[in-house]
């Protein structure tokens, strides 16, 4: 009769004890002799945040950004360029949607402009010395936007001033082979003016090759066959289509290297050492001027001489002849000459980068760097404002989450708006020169979105192997614009694909040259980089690039009407870049898959064996050590992958993960060798340096072989082949060593 | 009447609740979505372990190590050198006292030896062509250890073979100035043999300078004034004292650079690219041979010609004359000539480094690297076996704690025994070439103990500023050997001190040249390094180095009887190195004080301002940007120090500390610029590169100024001064940027 009471008490006691246990366990934070509860613990990629960001990236706002950015021409260092610096600072400092901080970094750099007082001119001069024809000095004002005083006259930036005059010849792309062909055709090039078309080689190379053969001046035009799918009449071109109008002229830098020409390897601060102009290398050696195809037609369709080879013909509606000089039955008397008067001026100008940052919550010393240049040639709606419009929308969405306190990334995210890219990646290069070590030690990856949208068909990504996996993960989760319900990934694979020995059919990433601001990051600093854009269906057009590239016709309406009505492709690029940035900044384990380098090395190795093996053997050079090195890399990369997945199954310590992530982040650095190609300014990456040799293998090896080819065994050239082989073997062995368990000798 | 019961129940309930709370809190491990409780938490420097290690480092065992190591000559790549590789592997793999793992890394390197068949000879040849006197080919066998077949004949390593013969001249140290002096004295140097004494310049420089003046062959000897405090008789020298016997000859490498001469910047693997001998630079241009001072006396005391300047006189007991040729009243007829026949051979030999590692428990990817070379010229009891004896005792004590499970360091500790150092730091250099990135990314510091004990008076440390503080902390806690109760620090400060603007009177650290294996680590990789030894009281002896250096008299008995009877100085060095290693490997916060670089920069800056300021101004070069850069560095370094002490007061997250430690560890890297001094092989550190200029400031600036000095403004030389100024400003600004809060732009 008492037992119920006892039981009651017992139960109560149990309940109280239990309550206590619960309170004690959950309500009181554990104290320990350990440093404060690791702030790093919970933070990993948050898929809800990712979804939110994807959802908030707004096509309409990108369109409005673009309208503002491209409202006026904003040539590097122009007043409007400075206005945009302020616009970026204001956006990135906005209390509701800004970043943690933003700042402008200004450099004093050497730019090249046509003279205002004395415009560049291209004339045909009759035998009596009077001008019988003049090319257009400006593009036709078809939309009211081509006539402004701030529309820079077309010129070949960094081409020297001068007024050469001579008989005209047609030199196709102006390659070394093209000029050799003219010689074999018995054409005297000494003192001539060479008309060349864009394509084949870099801009500056055309003048360099021409000068080697005594050519006195160079003209460069864009052939309708190369840019307009053959169309050339005003009715068929902008504003009636996306094609280039007859008066359109592609501007561009003709400088061989990148970075400020006066301060190689040094930031162009006001006090920095600067080369004497006499000691600057890489400028075109002879006066050069770009023209439109309507002017090119007048010149080319009146040329005399033998018919140009079939591959040299274009779409100007006449048979292209080689010259020299004009044909008697044409518009100009036979002995007329062409005069190219170039009055370019070199000026030291201030150009700014704008940097903005979101501080990482856990690993603020790890930077996910995302950038694009700001400067354009004219309005630059596509190049570069389409990228900047995306950049601003991404910073707005992330900034808003940040300011609301909803989210802060694990690692720091750095936004960059580079200056003076059009003159040779100057802003980004000076930045890497100024902060070399800080960036090299801490940057996870560099994401570049320059021209965001060339066209609406598909994604196009260039990058180094470690970024492939994160690009794939991101694009599989995003719907592609346009009809159907494909992911960006599934749409992409229809246009660019390759069969991977590891993955089967996958979208193919292109490799990074030096076409935009990623160049100093990958080649000079060895930072894993990528360049992202939406582009066209190459089966539907043969245009080498969007037709109004670097002309005064690259305007907002051009984008709005022809390139991306509705801006859904811009939105797709924003989502792709955004997802990649979040994955890189928030994932506990860095989504950089270093083992994807194995495929590249394998393919380089196979090319070397197939295309160079026999030749090398003749000169008793063995590829054996290279084979061993590639195999070592493959094995170590695979083993590291294994260790990572094992660790991911458990609940690893943040420091353990940090150590692994450092191995992933720093792998790319181990391919750098600043002493490998001393003559190739900035190019230190032994896998991606510029390849002049024809064999698609390790560039140092490929280039050295093509130089040694015709020399005897034991020559210096063959010694250089062996040196290059040892350089790449050392890099691969060194890279493999960094992938091994960190406590292994 | 009921209330007591209620109260009782209440109390019981409270007790139960409380018990529950306690159980819940302590008895049940907290579960969370966070990674496992950080293993990194508790691990910091353990003073008890430190004390244990200090106590267990045993002088007697060091003595026994030395006896074994120096029992036989162990020239690089000799059979005995290979035996010692096995000895090290066996010690480091010992189950009771070994490390986690150990391994030998072998390279195929170019060494230089005298011919066995055809010994190098130095003869005096009479007018009739017959040999009237011959110098000794070997050292006198005074202890029974100098006669062995494995005692290498004295030679100038890498000096070319040849048999020049000519009149003898005396050229003092063989500096550029010395040969100029001979010229001004009207002495024809063409075709002569120059007798020089060690000191003044590097070995190889004597031959380089001589060859510039047409000298045909060079002899090098050690003057008793420079090494023996003037004493030279057998009764006054070893085995009767520590002084060099008359027949002793200093051997050495005469190669200008370091590393394997055939594989600059590449590891000397069997398959590596190797230079043709014709393309190797840095070897002495003319036959060269070292001799003992008894032979030098025969030559020098019979010279003809004018009396040498007072500063050229030595302690051979005669008036030194300049020559050319012998005096009529001497031992040799006046027109006798000296013939120097050198038959050195270059051979590709296998040389091994031995590496051993203790895996770090928390940060295994951070390496504290401690090493010494293994190879000697003969028995090398002092050089290098005194260091190796210490190395083995340290690895034994730490290995024993490890195997017992008593201790495991926070970071990894790597022990290194380098090969072929005597020929030019070859083993260590090849190692840095092979593992460049891995080492540069992960090495906390490099500690070198080559010659552990020169003498018993005091500690002597060379190192870069960030290591000063850890050296001070360690040495303050260790009793110095010998009478009295001073700490090593308090004894040290009596011999080497300076007045620091920050700390007042402190022991002064020397700066690191290229005298031992630290060179590639500091100059090529930018790793904070130090070299530790016990040395003599410079007020008691003027010896440029311990007298039997690089001779067959550097034996165990020499050390046991004269250098360090009782081995207490060896023990002191072992304790110092051991304490430094533990502090670097176990401290939660890295004990590298980067702000100590500010003093160096300040002093370099002041020297530049005082000694170059006016000159630079004349050429309108401003030091303003350098001043700003130094001030920036000072401010950022101080601020970082503040942040660290604040953090130390709290209980910081291990990741936060890792990030700070990375800033400390990597600072030294930011002073590297591989493009700063392209002609100076391996030297990339803009603060410690070899300084040829007289002004004690930034080496690039100092050297460029001394070259530009006599050229006109606007010369290339002055442009180079400006370039060097920008290089150092960029490095300092870049370094300051790495010290800022990591999330700052």
Automatic annotation (TrEMBL), chains A, B:
<keyword id="KW-0479">Metal-binding</keyword>
<dbReference type="GO" id="GO:0004177">
    <property type="term" value="F:aminopeptidase activity"/>
</dbReference>
<dbReference type="Pfam" id="PF04389">
    <property type="entry name" value="Peptidase_M28"/>
</dbReference>
<dbReference type="Pfam" id="PF02225">
    <property type="entry name" value="PA"/>
</dbReference>
<comment type="function">
    <text>Aminopeptidase with broad substrate specificity. Has lower activity with substrates that have Asp or Glu in the P2' position, or Pro in the P3' position. Lacks activity with substrates that have both Pro in the P3' position and Asp or Glu in the P2' position. Lacks carboxypeptidase activity. Lacks dipeptidyl-peptidase IV type activity.</text>
</comment>
<keyword id="KW-0645">Protease</keyword>
<feature type="domain" description="Peptidase M28">
    <location>
        <begin position="353"/>
        <end position="561"/>
    </location>
</feature>
<feature type="domain" description="PA">
    <location>
        <begin position="166"/>
        <end position="252"/>
    </location>
</feature>
<keyword id="KW-0325">Glycoprotein</keyword>
<dbReference type="InterPro" id="IPR046450">
    <property type="entry name" value="PA_dom_sf"/>
</dbReference>
<dbReference type="Pfam" id="PF04253">
    <property type="entry name" value="TFR_dimer"/>
</dbReference>
<keyword id="KW-0862">Zinc</keyword>
<keyword id="KW-0031">Aminopeptidase</keyword>
<keyword id="KW-1015">Disulfide bond</keyword>
<comment type="similarity">
    <text>Belongs to the peptidase M28 family. M28B subfamily.</text>
</comment>
<keyword id="KW-0735">Signal-anchor</keyword>
<dbReference type="GO" id="GO:0004180">
    <property type="term" value="F:carboxypeptidase activity"/>
</dbReference>
<keyword id="KW-0106">Calcium</keyword>
<dbReference type="InterPro" id="IPR039373">
    <property type="entry name" value="Peptidase_M28B"/>
</dbReference>
<dbReference type="InterPro" id="IPR036757">
    <property type="entry name" value="TFR-like_dimer_dom_sf"/>
</dbReference>
<dbReference type="InterPro" id="IPR003137">
    <property type="entry name" value="PA_domain"/>
</dbReference>
<dbReference type="GO" id="GO:0016324">
    <property type="term" value="C:apical plasma membrane"/>
</dbReference>
<dbReference type="GO" id="GO:0006508">
    <property type="term" value="P:proteolysis"/>
</dbReference>
<keyword id="KW-0378">Hydrolase</keyword>
<keyword id="KW-0812">Transmembrane</keyword>
<keyword id="KW-0482">Metalloprotease</keyword>
<dbReference type="GO" id="GO:0046872">
    <property type="term" value="F:metal ion binding"/>
</dbReference>
<protein>
    <recommendedName>
        <fullName>Aminopeptidase NAALADL1</fullName>
    </recommendedName>
</protein>
<dbReference type="GO" id="GO:0008237">
    <property type="term" value="F:metallopeptidase activity"/>
</dbReference>
<dbReference type="InterPro" id="IPR007365">
    <property type="entry name" value="TFR-like_dimer_dom"/>
</dbReference>
<feature type="domain" description="Transferrin receptor-like dimerisation">
    <location>
        <begin position="621"/>
        <end position="740"/>
    </location>
</feature>
<dbReference type="InterPro" id="IPR007484">
    <property type="entry name" value="Peptidase_M28"/>
</dbReference>
């Amino acid at each position: 009769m008492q037992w119920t009471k006892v039981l009651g008490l017992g139960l109560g006691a149990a309940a109280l004890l239990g309550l206590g246990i619960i309170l004690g366990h959950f309500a009181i934070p554990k104290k320990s002799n350990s440093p404060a509860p690791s702030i790093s613990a919970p933070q990993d990629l948050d898929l809800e945040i990712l979804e939110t960001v994807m959802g908030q990236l707004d096509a309409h706002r990108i369109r409005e950004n673009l309208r503002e950015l491209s409202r006026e021409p904003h040539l590097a260092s122009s007043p409007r360029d400075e206005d945009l610096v302020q616009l970026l600072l204001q956006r990135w400092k906005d209390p509701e949607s800004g970043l943690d901080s933003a700042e402008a970094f200004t450099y004093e750099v050497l730019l090249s402009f046509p003279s205002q007082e004395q415009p560049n001119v291209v004339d045909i001069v009759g035998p009596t010395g009077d001008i019988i024809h003049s090319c257009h000095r400006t593009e036709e004002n078809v939309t009211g936007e081509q006539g402004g005083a701030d529309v820079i006259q077309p010129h070949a930036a960094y081409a020297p001033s001068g007024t050469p005059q001579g008989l005209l010849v047609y030199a196709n792309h102006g390659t070394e082979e093209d000029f050799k062909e003219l010689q074999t055709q018995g054409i005297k090039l000494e003192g001539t003016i060479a008309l060349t078309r864009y394509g084949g080689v870099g801009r500056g190379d055309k003048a360099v090759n021409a000068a080697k053969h005594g050519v006195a001046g160079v003209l460069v035009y864009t052939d309708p066959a190369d840019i307009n799918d053959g169309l050339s009449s005003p009715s068929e071109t902008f504003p009636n289509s996306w094609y280039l109008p007859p008066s359109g002229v592609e501007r561009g830098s003709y400088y061989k290297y990148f970075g400020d020409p006066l301060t190689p390897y040094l930031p162009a601060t006001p006090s920095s050492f600067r080369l004497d102009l006499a000691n600057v290398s890489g400028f075109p050696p002879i006066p050069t001027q770009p023209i439109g195809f309507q002017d090119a037609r007048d010149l080319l369709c009146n040329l005399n001489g033998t018919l140009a080879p079939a591959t040299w013909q274009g779409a100007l509606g006449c048979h292209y002849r080689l010259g020299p000089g004009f044909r008697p039955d044409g518009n100009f008397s036979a002995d007329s000459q062409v005069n190219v008067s170039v009055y370019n001026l070199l000026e030291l100008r201030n150009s700014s980068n704008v940097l903005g940052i979101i501080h990482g919550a856990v690993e603020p010393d790890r930077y996910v760097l995302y950038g694009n240049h700001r400067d354009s040639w004219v309005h630059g709606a596509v190049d570069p404002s389409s990228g900047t419009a995306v950049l601003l929308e991404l910073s707005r969405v992330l900034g808003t989450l940040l300011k609301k306190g909803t989210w802060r990334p694990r690692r720091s995210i750095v936004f960059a708006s580079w200056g003076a890219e059009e003159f040779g990646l100057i802003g980004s290069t000076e930045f890497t020169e100024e902060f070399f070590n800080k960036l090299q030690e801490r940057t996870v990856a560099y994401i570049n979105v320059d021209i965001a949208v060339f066209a609406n068909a598909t994604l196009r990504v260039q990058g180094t192997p470690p970024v492939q996996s994160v690009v794939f993960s991101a694009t599989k989760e995003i719907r592609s614009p346009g009809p159907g319900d494909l992911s960006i990934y599934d749409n992409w694979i229809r246009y660019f694909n390759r069969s991977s020995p590891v993955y089967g059919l996958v979208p193919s990433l292109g490799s990074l040259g030096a076409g935009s601001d990623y160049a100093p990051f990958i080649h000079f600093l060895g930072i894993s980089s990528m360049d992202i854009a939406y582009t066209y269906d190459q089966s539907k057009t043969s245009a080498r690039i969007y037709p109004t590239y670097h002309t005064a016709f690259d305007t907002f309406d051009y984008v709005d009407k022809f390139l991306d009505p509705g801006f859904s492709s811009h939105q797709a690029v924003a989502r792709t870049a955004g997802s990649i940035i979040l994955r890189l900044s928030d994932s506990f384990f860095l989504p950089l898959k270093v083992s994807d380098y194995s495929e590249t090395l394998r393919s380089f190795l196979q090319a070397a064996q197939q295309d160079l093996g026999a030749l090398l053997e003749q000169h008793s050079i063995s590829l054996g050590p290279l084979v061993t090195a590639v195999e070592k890399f493959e094995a170590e990369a695979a083993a590291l992958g294994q260790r990572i997945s094992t660790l991911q199954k458990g609940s690893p310590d943040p420091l353990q993960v940090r150590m692994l992530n450092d191995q992933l982040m720093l792998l790319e650095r181990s391919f750098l060798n600043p002493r490998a190609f001393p003559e190739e300014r900035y190019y230190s990456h032994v896998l991606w340096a510029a390849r002049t040799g024809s064999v698609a293998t390790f560039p140092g090896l490929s280039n050295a072989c093509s130089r040694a080819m015709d020399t005897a065994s034991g020559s210096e050239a063959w010694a250089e082949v062996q040196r290059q082989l040892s350089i790449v073997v050392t890099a691969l062995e060194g890279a493999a060593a960094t992938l091994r368990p960190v406590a292994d000798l």
